[in-house]
Amino acid sequence: MAKTKPLPPIDNLMQKIKDCLDIGAYKQTVHALKRRAERDIDLLDALYVLKNGYHEKSKTSFDEAFQAWKYAVRGKTLDELDIRIIVAFDESGMLIITVMHVAKKEDGK
What we know:
By secondary structure, this protein is of the alpha+beta class. The protein is built from three helices and six strands, in the order H-E-H-H-E-E-E-E-E. It has one domain: 2-Layer Sandwich (YaeB-like fold). Strand 3 and strand 4 form a beta hairpin. The model has no long low-confidence stretch (mean pLDDT 90).
């Protein structure tokens, strides 16, 4: 059986994320739910960053195991918390894979 060719990376990522959020075509993985609870990151904060953050291209990668692109979105919550969210896409929409705080040392601070 031939492997299906992986999709190319999305060029208009932030628009695709907003479109998925607008129509409710997103879901959180079990991993994301667990990490949000562990890291005390509210879903509304994560959704706010997805709508208002930026594509952190240096943290975006191709996942060989799942044959899918994982995109990093970074931004500040209304409370000024710096967070990163990893998302991917499937036929049903956007998957929120994980959510994390960005450590200050990562910025060289």
